[in-house]
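Standup notes, protein team

Yesterday: finished cleaning the Qipengyuania spongiae set.
Today: DUF4893 domain-containing protein structure.
Blockers: none.

Input for DUF4893 domain-containing protein:
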Amino acid sequence: MIRAVFFGLGLSAASCANAQLPAVSPDAAVAAAGDCAEAASAGRVDVGKLEARGWQAATMRSEGRTVEMPLQIFGKSGASPVLMISPSQDGSPEGCVLTGALERLSDFKELEAAFTRQFEAAGKKADDRYFRIGSDMVVLTQTGSRSKPSFRVAVLELGVSK
């Protein structure tokens, strides 16, 4: 089930693949993942907690009118990643997805090292790196291309295991 939820979150992030992503430092990515973990609770992401940490909701306008978007998209000043909240589907919990650009392809190793220093490593599978932030599961994935490297972080509250 977790794999299916993260796969869905990944597809949500793919919608921004063609947008110009900000280049993000490892420290900014770690901080943003922490913000997502703080805001995630069982089944939903608390937008108020994100706003209290400086995230601002984006709006899309067409012909002078606000357009409803399937994703909630947030930004933060500076070189922070783009934050998206994936809507609940099929009873799956909401998740927080971060995406940002890397200056160089090799920067992903620095990003992974920063996550490893800050959070509990929980394994690797294929291109995914798994981490725990309390009861949250985090998946760090290298995305983009050789010429335009980027990354995606999915954060999902798993709840307390009994």
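Follow-up from PR in the comments: Residues 26-39 form the longest helix (14 residues).
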